Amino acid sequence: MSELNTPGTAVPLEQSPIAPKPPGRIRQALDSDIVYSYTRSPVTIIASIIALLLILMAVFAPLIAPYNPFNPASLNLMDGFTPPNSTSFSGNYFALGTDHQGRDVLSTIMYGLRVSLFVGALATLFAMAIGISLGLAAGYNGGTLDAVIMRIADIQLSFPAILIALLIFGIARGLIPPSQQEGAAVWVLIVAIGLSNWAQFARTVRGATMVERQKDYVSAARIMGVHPIVILVRHVLPNVMGPVLVIATIGLALAIIEEATLSFLGVGVPPTQPSLGTLIRIGQQFLFSGEWWILLFPAITLILLALSVNLLGDWLRDALNPKLR
Amino acid sequence: MTSALTRIGAALLASSILVSAASAETVRWARASDALTLDPHSQNQGVTHNFAHHIYETLVDRDVEGNLQPRLATEWAVSEEDPTVWVFTLRQGVTFHDGAEFTAEDVVFSLDRARSEKSNMRQLHVDVESVTAVDDHTVEVKMAGPSPLYPNNLTNTFIMDKTWSEANDVVEVQDYAAGEDNYAVRNTNGTGPYVLTSREVDVRSVLTLNENHWAEEAPAVTEIIYLPIAENATRIAALLSGEVDIVQDVPVQDVERLSSTDGIKVETGPENRVIYFGYKFGEEPLASSNITDRNPFNDPLVREAMHLAIDRDAIQRVVMRGQSIPTGVANPPFVAGWTEELNAYSAPDLERARELLAEAGYPDGFTVTLDTPNNRYVNDEAISQAVVGMLGQIGIQVTLASRPVAQHSPLVTSNQTDFYLLGWGVPTFDSAYVFNDLIHTKDGSYGAYNGGLYSNPELDEMIQSLGTEVDTAVRDATVAEIWATVQEDRVLLPIHNQVLAYAMRDDITLAVHPENQPMLTTVTFGE
Questions:
Q1: Above 80 in pLDDT, residue B401?
Q2: Mean pLDDT throughout B301-322?
Q3: What is the complex's ipTM, to 2 decimals?
Q4: Per the database record, which ranges form the Solute-binding protein family domain (chain B) (predicted)?
Q5: Are residues A100 and B382, on separate chains, in Cβ contact within 8 Å?
Q6: How many Cβ contacts (< 8 angstroms) between chains A and B?
Q7: In A60-104, which ranges are continuous DSSP H helix?
Q8: HSE-up of B55 (CA within 13 Å, CB side)?
Q9: Contact, B78 vs B66, CB < 8 A?
Q10: Which residues of A make CB contacts under 8 Å with B?
C-alpha cells in the first residue's frame, strides 16, 4: 500500500542538506511543496480519500464485513440471487444482494479487495525489488552487464505485460503438481505479475543511476574505498527513489488491473476465494438474466480503486517533477 | 493459458464475423468448447464425437428417441452358425471425401484401430476377439462370447479410410493424454455428410456439404460454421446480436430471457448424462489433504457423511434454476438398469454427517482439493462451488481447482486428482457402459475414467460377464446386483441428470438430442 506512504517517504527528498535550521520535521513537512500541491488539488484529495477508504475496508474486512464469504461453511445456497437491499430465503438481510452461491456481495467485495490489493502490492514490491537491483547494477557497472540487462528489458517491454504474465502463469502451472496448484495460485500470480513489470523500474533506475554515478559524492565514496554495494544502497538508491515511487504508484494500479484481468480470464485465484476480477468474471455470467448487482458492484469497486490510485500516481509524478511546478 | 487465449480469440472473432451475412443454408453453430481432437478414436468425449459425426460416420447410429438406426451398416445380425459372431452388411456405393471407395477393409481397419492400445474407445470393444472382412461389403466381428448388445457400442466408433490412414501415418491412435499429435488430429477423410474445409482449433471450423454423400435427401444446411465460444455471456450475446444461429450450450440462467426474446426460441429436453463427483479410493494418503497417514475417502463412513451433506434439491433450485433432475444414482433414466429405488436420494442430514465424520476419526474434518472443469457441463464450476460450501458445513475444507475441460480430463484419466467432478453420458443406453469405464478396476482396457481407482475384483468379474451374457433375465439380475454394491459402497457421489437447452433463431428447428449430439443434417428451416 505504498501510495499511503508516498507523501511521508517523499518528505526527506525535499530536505535540502544545506537548508537553514529546520523548524521541526512536522512543520517542515507541512510547509513542503508536496503538501502544498496536495492541498491545492481537490481531485487528489478525493482520490486519496477513496483509496484510503477502500484500503481500510480491505484491511478491516474481517471486522466490518457482515458475513465471511471465504468460509464456505457459512453459506446457504438457498440465499443465492437475493436482490440488493432485501431479505433472503433464510431471513438474512443483504445490502448489495447475493451472488449465485448465496454469498453477500458487499462482504465478498471487501474480501475480494483484500486479495486484489495484496496481490497488487506484493507484485509491485516484487517488480520493484528486481527492477531496482538490476537497474542499479546496470547503471553503475555499465558495459556488457548493462547491455544484457537492458536488452532483456527492451524485449520484455515490447510484449504486453498481460501476455508475459499469462506465459509465466502457464509455465508455473506446468511446474507445480496439480494437487498443490490452488494453494500456490496467489503466489504464482504475484510472481507472474511482478516479473511482467520489472522492466519499467529497471529502466528508470538505470538512467538515474548513470546520472548519479558521475556526481562528486559517488566519486568521493569510491575513493574512500567504500564497497560498491554500500555506495549503491546507501548513497545512490535514496537519490533515485523519487521516480521509482511514481512508477510504483502507477504500477500498483496496473498490477491490480492485471490481476483482475488474469482472474477474469479464469487463470487467477480460485473461485472460492475471489478477487475483484474473479467476482467480475462470475457476475458477467448473469448479465443477461437480470442479476445485475453481481457484476455491477465489484466492477464499480475495481474502477474506483484503479482510478484513485492512478490519480494519486499522476499527482505524485507532477509534484515530484520540479519542471512542472 | 489456452482457455484465456481462446476467449480473446473468440472475442476478436465475434467482432469480425459480423461482416459476413449468412445465406439461408449456412448455419453458425456455437458451443462452449471445441472438439478435443479430430482423431476419431483418441477421445471418447461428447463434444468431440458430436463434431466428428458430421465428418465421419459410424456403422450404426441413434435417432433422437434413442433407437438404433442403420448408417454405414445397412443390416446387422448374429451369425446363424456361431452365436458369438456379429455379421454387418455394409452400405454400397459409399465413398470417402477423397474419392476412395468405402469397403469392408476400412471397417476392419477402423475397428482394429478403435480397440488398439492407445484408443480411448477401447472399452466399447473389449469383448471383440477379431474382425474380418468376408467380402467387400460384409464384415464379421468375432466376440469372446455371445454379445447381444454389441451394436449399441458402435454408435461413436467412426470408420476411417485404411489407405488414407496408412499414407498419412495415422495407423496408431493419437495418445491424447501424453500430448501427442498426428496428421488425423487436424485433417479428416470421412464418409460423412460434411467435409472439413478449414479449422482453427478453439476458434472456428468450417464444414461444407459433401455432394457425394449416399443419403437420398440432401440436408437443408449446406455449410456449417462451428464456433467454440467459451464465455457464456459472449456466446449468448452472439446469438442475441445475430452473429450465430444456434447455441448448443445455453447457460441455465439465460433460458428464461432467451425464450422471451423475439426471434429466438429455446428447445429443452433431458439429456442422457449424469453429473457426479468421484473420489480416490485406496490406502495411499491423498496428495492434497492435511491427513498424511491415511486416505479419508477410503473410509465408508466418510463417503456416507459426504452423501448426507449434499443438498441436491438446493443445487437444482438455485444453481440449475430448475433445469436438472436430481438423482441418487450415477445412471441416467434412459439407461437399462435404472430404477426408481436407485434414483432415490436421502435428504441432507448435517448432524448425522458430522457424527459419521467424528466416528471415522475426523472430528475436525480434513482438507482436500476438488478438481472441476469450468466449460464442459452446465454450470459445472458453480455446482462444485456449491458442494464446497456443503462439505464445509460438516468440516471438510475443500479447495476448489477449476480448469478448462482440456486440462481437467487428463487429471481424471491419469489418476492425478483426489476429488473431481465429471459427467457421464451413456451412448449404449446400457449400464454396462457405466460399469466398464467408471466402476471396473483400471487395467488398461476397462476403467478408463475410474479416476478414483475403485477396485472390487468380485464386481470386475460380474461386469465382465455382462458382455457375454445372453439370458436377459440373468443379465438384468447381475446389473441390479452390481448397482446395489456400487450404491452400498458409495463408489460415486451423483448429483443430477442434465437438462439440455438449445437456443436458436426461431425459423430453425433442431430437436434436443438425448446424448447432446444433435446432427445439423436434421435442421429444418421455416416456421
A1: yes
A2: 94
A3: 0.74
A4: 68-443
A5: yes
A6: 116
A7: 61-64
A8: 29
A9: no
A10: 71-75, 77-78, 80-81, 100-102, 166-167, 169-170, 173, 177-183, 262, 265-267, 270-272, 284-291
Using the 8-state DSSP alphabet, how is residue B512 labeled?
A: P
What DSSP string describes B194-222? EEEEEEETTTEEEEEE-TT-S-SSPPS--
Q: Which of B312, B204, B345, B323 is nearest to B266 (CA)?
A: B323
Measured between CB atoms, does B163 come within 8 Å of chain A?
A: no
Kind and range of the H or E run holding B227: strand B223-228
> Taking the CA atoms of chain B, what radius of gyration do you get in angstroms?
23
Of residues B435 and A78, the one with the higher pLDDT is B435
Question: Which residue in this structure is represented by grid cell 468431440?
Answer: B48
Residues A167-181: pLDDT tens digits? 888 888 788 887 777
Phi, psi of B383 (to 5 degrees): -65, -45
Domains of chain B: 47-167 (3.90.76.10), 270-499 (3.10.105.10)
- Kindly tell me the sign of the dihedral angle through the C-alpha atoms of A90, A92, A93, A94: negative
Q: How do residues B509-520 score in pLDDT, each as one tens digit?
A: 999 988 899 999
Cell of B358: 467424528
Question: Is the per-residue pLDDT at A106 higher than 50?
Answer: yes
- Grid coordinates representing B459 are 464386481
Domains in chain A, ordered, with CATH?
31-71+96-324 (1.10.3720.10)
Of A74, A266, A289, the CB nearest to B4: A266
Round to whole Å and give the CA distance between B283 and A200: 52
How buried is residue B363: exposed, middle or buried, by Cβ count under 10 Å (0-12/13-18/19+)? exposed
* Residue B111: count of CB within 10 angstroms of its CB: 23
And the C-alpha cell for A255?
Answer: 498490477
